[in-house]
Design goal:
Layout: H1 16-25, H2 31-69, H3 75-123, H4 126-130, H5 134-176, H6 178-225, H7 227-232, H8 236-290, H9 297-338, E1 350-356, E2 362-364, E3 372-378, E4 383-388, E5 393-400, E6 409-416, E7 421-426, H10 432-439, E8 447-452, E9 455-456, H11 462-467, E10 469-472, E11 481-482, H12 483-488, H13 496-505, H14 509-513, E12 522-523, H15 532-546, E13 550-554, H16 562-576, E14 580-584, E15 596-601, E16 604-609, H17 611-617, H18 620-626
Parallel strand pairs: 7-14, 7-15, 10-13, 13-14
Antiparallel strand pairs: 1-2, 1-3, 3-4, 5-6, 5-8, 8-9, 11-12, 15-16
């Protein structure tokens, strides 16, 4: 099998602008919400600015005249303060509405992206899952999507709000004092310089952090699933050392990114205090020197408040840029999955239920009859023809390699006639499972031909091809749900009676009825509460309920004890009756009655024939059977 990538692939980040625009495209369905949010942002910015300006007017128009006249009438002051409170109240309501609407936008966008990711994942070829760890793929659904949520719900709204606020406040500062505005711009230039430098340095570490997190998740997932093996071979220390390396890489990236991003807040705040002191000194000198003609005391107070309000959104922008950079790194990983080339299916021949009369005439029917046919549409003539599904599978001079530089199968030719039982024997890595993977079209051959009832399998729709094949794998996968649900997975419209009949056929019925709730017993964690043999029996029942015309049994009885094997073998013989069957087995006792036994070695068929003939040849099969050497 192709090697699994355990760590990030090291590719450089794509164009962040392109990634951001693509992400924003998912927010189009929420255009109305975003318009309302923008209005709320503007209202909040104006409320904040107007509130600061009103403080200056309060000093110049109310407090100073009262002080000069010695008046004690606070009525006008209270009235004016209530007006200021209303302005701030409107800003608070707008801010609340903005946050409320952005929750809808962020959650809806996340759902759409997750739906598209999962849909795309179902269309990816098996090769993708062979070369990417489950944990690394899962991290795209969890940590990467969560960074997108934070960016959409917080970073983008705050950044836009900060930009609008800076613009509005800048205009208000110019109205208050153009001289002090120029002074402010010098200090702001210093803040921006620091921000650009720090963000530029932190960006690559945030991207590295997301990739390293995917690698850690992949390794942890692998260790959890293989914990028994780790303990059996006492590899706890080795596993810990490898994890420490991956975790150290994650820590190094996260530490550097966090240190740089956290540095910006204190630096910008201190520069803001310096700016505040400079403005106070310069503004005070102007007030005193001009005796209030160039700028009044109230205007100076307004400008000082505005300058603080001006620095705050700039600091927010610098802080949110880090979150946006990290989110874009996560978005790139998400889009990498979504941009993977899907499994190509150019097939046009489909599988249909059929009725076949005594003259061999085939009629398509919607109900399940137990008979199938291949439906060939002929677009040029506008006609349709049917070929009965018999289970005749042939391979002609097939070459195949999982990677271009290494051929796994060499010039493989085989014939499996309807109703025959074909067995594959050979050491691990000889190519037995690879042949069945090619029949399923999990992979496409490099050279040669594979025909199914005389039809090139490339012309058959993959879903219909696989629907005609029942597969029992060596590695059993059970899903969360009841035992009945897991058996019904082979045929979703199967009745309870059909599922029970399939379980009886696989000799799984007896142990199932002894479970706490029988067929309604809930299974979790890949059926961890069951033995490996019991899980295998359920998998065999799952294949049996599908009642397919062709069966592939890949080490189907490898996890079953010898006594149970005899019971299962009887059931399997009944299941295989009248079907074309491919069997892979290490226990040669299970394949002695095969119509043809093929011995593979390094991707080549070196012997073929029935049991007695191969024994008589006294070749590799004879040596395997007599124990001269064993399968590895």
């Amino acid at each position: 099998m192709p090697p699994v990538k355990m760590r990030g692939d090291g590719r450089k980040a794509k164009d962040p602008k392109k990634t951001l625009l693509r992400l924003l495209g998912y927010m189009k369905p929420y255009t109305f919400n975003l318009i309302v949010v923008m209005i709320c942002v503007i209202v909040t910015a104006f409320a904040q600015t107007k509130g600061s300006e009103n403080i200056g007017n309060l000093v110049d128009d109310y407090i100073l005249p009262m002080v000069a006249s010695g008046s004690t009438d606070f009525g006008p002051v209270v009235k004016y303060l209530l007006g200021i409170a209303v302005v701030f109240g409107c800003g608070m309501l707008a801010s609340f509405l903005q946050a409320f609407l952005m929750v809808t936008v962020s959650q809806g966008t996340q759902k759409t992206i997750r739906d598209e990711m999962f849909t795309k994942m179902q269309r990816l070829p098996l090769r993708y899952f062979d070369t990417n760890t489950a944990g690394n793929i899962m991290s795209r659904y969890t940590s990467d999507i969560d960074t997108l949520r934070q960016m959409i719900s917080q970073s983008i709204p705050q950044t836009v709000s900060s930009i609008v606020t800076v613009t509005v406040i800048f205009i208000a500062m110019l109205r208050a004092s153009w001289i002090l505005t120029i002074v402010t711009m010098f200090t702001v230039a210093g803040i921006m310089f620091v921000t650009v430098k720090v963000v530029g340095s932190a960006a690559k570490y945030f991207i590295g952090q997301q990739r390293a997190l995917g690698a850690v998740n992949g390794y942890v997932e692998e260790m959890i699933s293989g914990q028994k093996v780790v303990k059996v071979f006492t590899h706890e220390q080795t596993a810990k050392e490898e994890f420490d390396k991956l975790n150290e890489e994650l820590c190094r990236n996260a530490y550097t990114a966090g240190r740089l991003s956290n540095m910006m807040g204190p630096v910008n705040n201190n520069l803001g205090y310096i700016q505040y002191a400079i403005l106070a000194v310069v503004g005070g000198i102007i007030v005193v020197a001009s005796e209030g003609t160039m700028i009044t005391l109230g205007n100076l107070m307004t400008f000082m408040l505005l300058s603080r309000s001006f620095n705050m959104p700039i600091s927010q922008i610098s802080n949110q840029i880090n979150s946006i950079v990290m989110a874009l790194a996560g978005a790139e990983r998400v889009f990498e999955l979504m941009d993977e080339a899907p499994e190509v299916d150019n097939g046009y021949v489909t599988l249909v239920n059929a009725k076949i009369d005594e003259n061999g005439n085939i009629t398509e029917t919607p109900e399940r009859t137990g008979r199938w046919a291949w439906k060939h549409p002929h677009k040029a003539e506008g006609t349709v023809t049917y070929t009965e599904l018999k289970g005749d599978i042939t391979m002609y001079n097939v070459d195949f390699g999982y990677v271009p530089e290494k051929t796994v199968l060499h010039d493989v030719t085989l014939y499996a006639y309807p109703g025959q039982k074909i067995a594959f024997v050979g050491a691990t890595g000889a190519g037995k499972t690879t042949i069945t993977n090619l029949i399923n079209r999990f992979y496409d051959i490099d050279d040669g031909k594979i025909r199914y009832d005389g039809i090139n399998i490339n012309k058959i729709c993959k879903a219909d091809l696989r629907r005609s094949l029942g597969v029992v794998l060596q590695e059993t996968n059970l899903f969360t749900g009841t035992v009945m649900d897991n058996i019904r997975y082979g045929k979703l419209d199967a009745t309870d009676e059909e599922c029970i009949a399939a379980a009886k056929l696989a000799n799984a019925h007896d142990f199932i009825v002894r479970l706490p709730k029988g067929y309604d017993t809930e299974l979790t964690g890949n059926g961890a509460s069951l033995s490996q043999g019991q899980r295998q029996l359920i998998a065999i029942a799952r294949a049996a309920v599908a009642d397919p015309p062709v069966m592939i049994l890949d080490e189907a009885t490898s996890s079953i004890d010898t006594r149970t094997e005899k019971l299962v073998q009887d059931g399997m013989d009944a299941l295989m009756k009248g079907r074309t069957v491919f069997v892979i087995a290490h226990r040669l006792s299970t394949i002695m009655n095969s119509d043809c036994i093929m011995v593979l070695d390094h991707g080549r068929i070196i012997e073929r024939g029935i049991h007695d003939d191969l024994i008589a040849e006294k070749g590799t099969y004879y040596q395997l059977y007599t124990g001269a050497f064993e399968l590895e």
